[in-house]
Structures are given as structure tokens and as C-alpha cells.
Amino acid sequence: MKFHSNLLTLLLTLILALSLTVAAKAPAQQAIMVTFPAETSDGVVADARGALEKAGGVVTHEFQLIKGFAAKASKKAMGMLKAFEEDGAVVEGDEMVTTQD
Predict the structure, then answer these.
(1) How many CB atoms within 10 Å of residue 77?
(2) pLDDT tens-place string over residues 38-64
(3) In terms of Cα–Cα distance, which of 77, 98, 84 is closest to 30?
(4) 3-state class (DSSP) for residue 26
(5) pTM here?
(6) Which of 1, 13, 25, 56 is the most buried (most CB within 10 A)?
(7) Among candidates 33, 29, 31, which has minimal Cα distance to 90?
(8) How distant, in Å, are the alpha carbons of 56, 85, 86 from that of 53?
(9) What is the pLDDT of residue 24?
(10) Where are the alpha helices (DSSP H) in the chain?
(11) Which residues contact residue 22 at a Cβ distance below 8 angstroms, ignoring those fewer than 6 apart?
(12) CB under 8 Å to 52, separation ≥6 — which residues?
């Protein structure tokens, strides 16, 4: 019985250590919005989305009324979007906006 208890303790310790290691290696991501001027081609927006995803970002919503998308992205992924600023891309934090205080 003591053997099973020691084995269980060892397994739980290993699982905890592995989960902490994985969590420590995952880059911190923040919620962002990426928007483009209305005249921007759909191809440029698709290229920006692809660059973000290739750098590890995740698109969480595609806007319908304006050109752009919401995403979760690391600093590295946001850096990839700098190349799209010449196409008019605006990258900003995705925050709650209210009309009243």
C-alpha cells in the first residue's frame, strides 16, 4: 500500500512539474484589434491574418462592418503586423468601451 502511495505522489509531482514548464514557455498573449482602411484589398487583410497566425497569434473574430479582425497575440506576433502599417493597418489593444462612466 505504501508503494502505491509513493508512486502516486511521484506521478503527481511529475505532472505538476511538466505543467509548470509548459506554462512558463508559453508566450504571454494579449487581446488586440487590427483594422484597415475601407479601400484596403481583402488580400492584404488575409496576408496580415496569415502572418499573425504564422507567428503564433490566434484570430478570435473577423469584423463584418469594417476591415479587420480581433486576435490574441504575443509581442512577436504583433511585431509581424508592423509590416502592414504601410497598408494602413492599425494595431491596438482590444478593450471594453462604454458610453457612460
Answers:
(1) 22
(2) 999 999 999 999 999 999 999 999 999
(3) 77
(4) coil
(5) 0.68
(6) 56
(7) 33
(8) 5, 17, 20
(9) 53
(10) 2-25, 42-54, 75-80
(11) none
(12) 34, 59, 71, 73, 77, 80, 81
**pLDDT tens across 57-97, in order?**
999 999 999 999 999 999 888 888 888 999 999 998 887 77
Q: Rg of the Cα trace of the chain?
A: 21
Which residue has cell 496580415? Answer: 48
Give the helix/strand (H/E) hosting 38: none
Give per-residue pLDDT as tens, 85-94: 999 999 988 8
Percentage of the residues of the chain whose pLDDT score is greater than 70: 86
Q: State whether residue 39 is helix, strand or coil.
A: coil
Q: Which amino acid is at 43?
A: G
- Secondary structure class of 71 (helix, strand, coil): strand
Phi, psi of 46 (to 5 degrees): -65, -40
Q: 95, 87, 72: which is closest to 36 by C-alpha?
A: 87
21/97: higher pLDDT = 97
